[in-house]
Amino acid sequence: MCPVAIKKINLQGVSNMQDIVSEIIVMKRNRSPHVVNYLDSYLVCKELWLVMEYMDGGTLYDAINETQMCKDETAIVSWECLQGLDYLHSNHVVHRDLKSLNILLRTDGSVKLGQYILGQAQFLIATKGIPELQQSELLSPLLRHFLSCCLQTDEARRWSAQELLQHPFVTSAKPTSSLAPLVILVNNWKEKTGMRQ
């Protein structure tokens, strides 16, 4: 039997249950090797338990907070995330909360988008603008150009996921298995420090 992840949603105070049901239907229909797949759901007392595919490598947030990712590792993660976004967009689904906590890793190096339905991050971008890159002078010109293509506030100028998949920064990405040592290193560190969940 394979391990699974369970996301628990407290239904007390949920004003429109139909929205949650609609979002579960969207998750059920959108299965891809590039997104964390929905498996099933259960109503337990006053909680909705969403059973999802388990990613044993933690989140990208863990990796970027415990290590310094190199350009090649960044390109791999970007390529894999864009594959997931392109898949969702082609099925008329918009990822509403793309951040490092919602990018999940496996110890084999695979990368998948998670939490693509139940979120609302666009409000922050609309009200606070795009955050400034810290130490941008340390980034290669190619990476800076890639980021500028991603972070255009004007939707007409912002590249789509499909266009970004053609950008030279990601077209030269190595196989995901190249990420495995990084993920294992972060997991080992978390186990040693007792931070493993």
Automatic annotation (TrEMBL):
Highest taxon of the lineage: Eukaryota
One GO MF term: ATP binding
Keyword entries, A-Z: ATP-binding, Nucleotide-binding
EC number: 2.7.11.1
Top-level class of the enzyme under EC nomenclature: transferase
Family stated for the protein in its record: Belongs to the protein kinase superfamily. STE Ser/Thr protein kinase family. STE20 subfamily.
Name of this chain's protein: non-specific serine/threonine protein kinase
Source species of the chain: Zosterops borbonicus
